[in-house]
Amino acid sequence: MEPSRLLDKIRGCLTGVAIGDALGMPVETMTREEILRATDGKGVRDLIKPVQQRIRGTIDLKPGSTTDDTQLTFAVAQSLINCRGFNVIDQANELVTELADSDFGWGRSTKKSAQQIKEYLDSCGLNWPPEKMPGRSPEIPAPPPAKPGDGCGNGVAMKVAPLAVFHALTGGFPEPFLSNVMALGLMTHGDPRASFAAGALGAAISAALMTRPAPLDGLVLRRLALKKATETALQLEFRYQFFRPNDDKLSARLEILPLVLGNLRSLRLRIGNGCFALESVPFAIGVFLRHPADFRQGVLEAVNAGGDTDTTASMVGALIGANVGLSGIPIDWQAAVPSTMKAMEMADLLEQAARG
To answer: Full-prediction pTM beyond 0.70?
Structure first.
């Protein structure tokens, strides 16, 4: 693939995260029915001011504003740029830096883990005995979930795009991508399935990024992306089968995607689209498979389905953006979302870091 085309696709992937986030932010947590009522039956068609009333801090945001999905994606990218590769301690430092800047919208698992890691990092160099060090080292997995659903939110998948891009560019699939996505995920999320979901999404992003444009961006790409995502889920589930096992498996949900892709309602009801990573990631991949080359239609479909809209739309944006590139993303949205400028800058620096 021509270097200029590949760079356009990297820019499209990270810009897609920001634009999807901005489009989904105004209706986050709302159901599809609530979105339709709030928009006179039209659904979200463009960047709008927040209409949801559940997340108080979002209500005063301007159209085009982004949230923690973009913030934490940029943090992962910045660390990869700093180190020209993956380093869990540097990733932790970037996470703690973002915590100090703003923890608005952060999930419980991410915020609690970041606070614990901050305590640990702040105490390094103070000659504490290892057994009395406060907080938790980022190299030690987050504690196991206290109850079902804990530690398996979207906090890992929402920020995996830069890691997928970097390893796609350096030939790092399946390794070291699999090991690194688990280290990144377990740093904050105690349920390993949150990391499995991020791994599956990253594999699909890699397929979209490295596949040449038309005619391969139709049936061939759809089959390849689903195959890579499912294989990655199965690999991780097998590798970590004895580490905090759970019978509710991501691979099983990915395997039923072909049965529900023809109908958005079936996709939404059979897979789910909430804050649970085993719902949101297969749902986002499913929407991408329905619209692999139509950024506007795909991202708006994710938004108008309701649920964790900023996250599902940002994941769909990353997937479609990786396929069509920046040149395939509506220019009016690029201009109206301030974070797209930083996304393009990050994309350029990430590509340079991958080249060594």
So the answer is: yes
